[in-house]
Task: inverse folding
């Protein structure tokens, strides 16, 4: 009986060891780079091997051969919208990221198999291959790095750096088209929400596009619940359309509504609305002065 108990205890211990999740330091620790460009989110998950005095490119990472671009498991790249990489379209999704380093130029590869290894890689599963420049860096990068730089609302660079080499790929997203799609989706999901309608109208106003649609959105917002915000938005849209005479009384009304709204945020907008009123007044043609004819 005692022997059976000892055997059972041993089996339990083995089972516990087999399922235990022990977190220990890794020679190539995991890392994640996240960047938003416009309305697109980029996420790169990778591992960071260190130089440790080794000759990297041309030795540890041979030129002309496929490299998993990191260590441990596959490096992955995720984009939430379509993106243009070095002039070539990459569809929204998650990909494993490989490179083929060469002196002065690398091949950057996005593969559909997100768990692909160097041995399991299949070129026919590539979603995109592009050439990118690789240049010597004055600053030595001890731990392998992937990140983003040179950000605008529609562009960025994807940087890969290790040892004394830096490779970079140009990324570009169609922020206006994607944002417009997001706006239309939000309005379709909440067609009776005055705040959503005003936000959609404001974005179109800020870009100076689809003003007729923006006017329709803000008119509906005002019909649902009139506030100084949506009245002011309508005034700005009309002014943008060249209808300053119609915009002026609305801007004046927005100022009055804001004063009595009790909305603490009005203080941040008051000066801008008042300036609109002054600007619209100045833009209107001055009334002709009546000239009295002298009596003969």
Result:
């Amino acid at each position: 009986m005692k022997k059976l108990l000892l055997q059972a205890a041993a089996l339990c211990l083995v089972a516990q060891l087999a399922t235990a999740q022990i977190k220990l330091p890794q020679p190539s620790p995991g890392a994640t780079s996240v960047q938003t460009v416009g309305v697109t989110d980029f996420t790169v998950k990778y591992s960071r091997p260190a130089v440790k005095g080794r000759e990297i490119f041309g030795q540890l990472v041979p030129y002309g051969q496929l490299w998993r671009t990191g260590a441990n498991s596959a490096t992955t790249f995720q984009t939430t919208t379509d993106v243009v990489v070095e002039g070539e379209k990459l569809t929204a999704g998650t990909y494993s990221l490989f490179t083929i380093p060469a002196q002065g130029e690398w091949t950057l590869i996005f593969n559909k198999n997100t768990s692909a290894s160097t041995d399991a890689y299949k070129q026919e599963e590539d979603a995109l291959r592009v050439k990118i420049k690789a240049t010597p860096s004055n600053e030595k990068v001890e731990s392998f790095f992937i990140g983003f730089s040179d950000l605008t609302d529609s562009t960025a660079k994807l940087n890969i750096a290790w040892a004394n080499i830096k490779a970079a790929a140009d990324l570009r997203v169609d922020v206006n088209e994607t944002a417009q799609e997001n706006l239309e989706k939000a309005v379709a999901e909440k067609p009776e929400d005055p705040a959503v309608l005003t936000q959609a109208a404001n974005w179109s106003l800020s870009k100076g596009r689809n003003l007729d649609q923006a006017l329709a959105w803000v008119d509906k917002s005002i019909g649902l619940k009139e506030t100084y915000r949506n009245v002011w938005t309508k005034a700005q849209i009309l002014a943008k359309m060249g209808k300053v005479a119609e915009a002026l009384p609305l801007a004046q009304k927005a100022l009055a509504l804001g004063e009595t709204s009790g909305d603490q945020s009005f203080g941040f907008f008051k000066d801008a609305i008042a300036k609109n009123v002054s600007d619209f007044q100045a833009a209107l043609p001055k009334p002709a002065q009546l000239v009295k004819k002298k009596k003969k």
